[in-house]
Amino acid sequence: MIRKIILSVDSLLNRLQKKANRIKFEEVFRKIQKQGKNIYISSDVDIVFPDRLILGENISILNNSKINAMGGVRIDDNVIISQNCTILSSNHDFINPNALPFGTNYLLKPVMIKRNVWIGINVSIIPGVTIGEGAIVGMGSVVTKDVPDLAIVGGNPAKIIKYRDRESYERLKKTGKYLGYIKKMHLYGKVKLSDIEKHFGYLTQKIQQNQIVNESDVQFISEDLRDFLLYYFSLTSQHYSFDIVNGKSEVKILP
Which of 93, 188, 218, 250 is the most buried (most CB within 10 A)? Predict the structure, then answer.
């Protein structure tokens, strides 16, 4: 009986703590200087100086990330910031300090993350950095200098590994194929959940058997539904190619 009471009290305290954290986060969220539509920020994200943070549209900032916007932080449209990332826009004054090991003043340098950027897990971004449009920052990277448009970088310090395919990038950009849009298409009636439930299992089974989906299998598929299914396939343990080839829809397992 005593054990049940203790567990019940612990559960109540946990719920109250979560509610208090949520209320605190909502207060911080309201203080953000400027924000567009379709913003998702985990409630455990730590934002310091939210009044100096500018957010575009269709942005996700995931669990346990930290943003210090003291020197100003701007994040443009369609950016995904993964778990445990740190973005700093200020540093202790070690150049002309009035004390050791560092002074009481701060060095302020704004950070800009341009549109369509993907930042992986455990990335750190130091003050004064600009991450170019369409760039990808690999997990665990420490970004110490500007990242060019469409660059894929990784390491500590982060270095350029290669660049994204510009033709593919511009095509997706021109047609407005953004991940947040694809995930939410069924909410806008462009993809019906009944279609997904009806056909997803069957298509997946054929794909796992390494069979090409023939035209009769996919005659129901609109371009929007094709994109939606591609998103769901990408969440599985294997990667799939879902495209129109010579006028026929094909789904293949990628090596």
Answer: 218
